[in-house]
Amino acid sequence: MDLHIAGRKAIVCASSQGLGRACATSLAREGVKVFINGRDAAKLAATAQEIAAETGGEVVPVAADITTDAGRAALVAACPDADILVTNNAGPTPGKFEDWDHDAYIAVFEQNFLPAALLIRALLPGMRQRRFGRIVNITSAMVKSPRAHQGLSTAARTALTALSKAISTEAVVDNVTINNLLPERIDSPRQQYLIERQAKLDGIPVEAARQKLTDTIAAKRFGRPEEFADMCAYLCSEQASFICGQNIQLDGGSYRGIV
């Protein structure tokens, strides 16, 4: 399927590895000029070269910490007329409610709410003026299936979900859509970290912990990053112009609710 976005420009946050990198690769394959982002300049440059070699696309590395004003400004300055924005950032360490103090809540909102909100604020007016924009927030399955140990992540990402829904109803009239992708059990570095953490908590080998988590997935396998990324690319397409304000789960059918 031709997604009709060749020649567009995209900013993909936190894209030197994992789901961000997969999304950048999928967009580059569609002919989108992709601005990838991360804090490690050397790693980011290598990633840009690898994606370009794999896809034949134009990939521009922008080393910047999006949790800072300066980092966000640098990213926007590199591509002020972005047609596509994919927000993303690593989630907080799981823990216990009684351990999360004032500073923990401030930190998670600085990490998983404010970067996305302020990047959207910077780029949305231009998208609306040009009458094309696609914003995809990579959030978490915890938005719809909260769990105690992921309470910090749930708090910040649900706030972003609510904000995005609120502004999406105004943006869509100008052909700018805002949607959220909710991953769970996608085979990424973040997932590997969670597996290793579970292994330590349970006192079992890493492979046993991986199997234990696999057994909780309805599809009985982990999702592939490229499966996730291709959904992201579709949401950025011309064809997806009537999909807006949605939370789309990629979890192998594991979510037990109906809404």
Task: Describe the 3D structure.
This protein has 259 residues and is an alpha/beta fold. The protein folds into 2 domains: 9-184 and 224-250, NAD(P)-binding Rossmann-like Domain (Rossmann fold); 187-222, no CATH class. Helices cover 46% and strands 14% of the residues. It has 9 helices and 7 strands, in the order βαβαβαβααβαβαααβ. It has helices at 18-29, 41-55, 69-78, 102-112, 114-130, 151-171, 189-202, 206-214, 225-235, and strands spanning 9-12, 33-38, 59-63, 84-87, 133-138, 176-183, 247-250. The protein has a 7-stranded parallel β-sheet with strand order 3-2-1-4-5-6-7, with helices on both faces. β5, α6 and β6 form a beta-alpha-beta unit. α4 crosses α6 and α7 packs across α8. It is globular, with a radius of gyration of 18 Å. The two termini are 28 Å apart.
What is the gist of this entry?
With 259 residues, the chain is of the alpha/beta class. It is built from 9 helices and 7 strands. The protein has 2 domains: 203 residues, NAD(P)-binding Rossmann-like Domain (Rossmann fold), CATH 3.40.50; 36 residues, no CATH class.
